[in-house]
Design a protein that fits this description.
This protein is mainly beta and 113 residues long. The chain has two domains: 42 residues, N-terminal domain of TfIIb (Single Sheet); 54 residues, SH3 Domains (SH3 type barrels, Roll), CATH 2.30.30. Helix content is 8%, strand content 29%. The strands form four sheets. A three-stranded antiparallel β-sheet has the order 1-2-3. A hairpin with a 3-residue loop joins strand 9 and strand 10.
């Protein structure tokens, strides 16, 4: 029995090696072992200020008054943000806030509702 991983596309256990490629005979999907390792490591886990894991579509609340860059307004504590999207970068939450518009937030300044 081989120690090759199942196909990431159809989950078939009948994968085989062809040089540096792994191939699934059932769905003809080809991939490399390195790309599979990179894919599992690239799944970044984003946590809020309390350590709860955030997901796309969650609703969060701002835990600190935040100055809005390029404006004289302030995002007040307790502001509820619905339907967040997680993105890569320093500001890892992309959202739309009523009265402010599109904005990026850092996960350390929000808590999950």
């Amino acid at each position: 029995m081989s120690n090759l991983p199942n196909c990431p596309k159809c989950n078939s256990e009948y994968t085989y090696e062809d040089g540096s490629l792994l191939i699934c005979p059932e769905c003809a999907h080809e991939w490399t072992l390195e790309s599979e390792l990179d894919h599992t490591e690239s799944a970044k886990i984003v946590k809020d200020a309390n350590g709860n894991v955030l997901n796309d579509g969650d609703t969060v609340t701002v835990i600190k008054d935040l100055k809005v860059k390029g404006s004289s307004s302030v995002l007040k504590i307790g502001t509820k943000v619905k339907n967040i999207r997680l993105v890569d970068g320093d500001h890892d939450i992309d959202c739309k806030i009523d009265g402010f518009g599109a904005m990026k937030l850092k996960s350390e300044f929000v808590k999950k509702v």
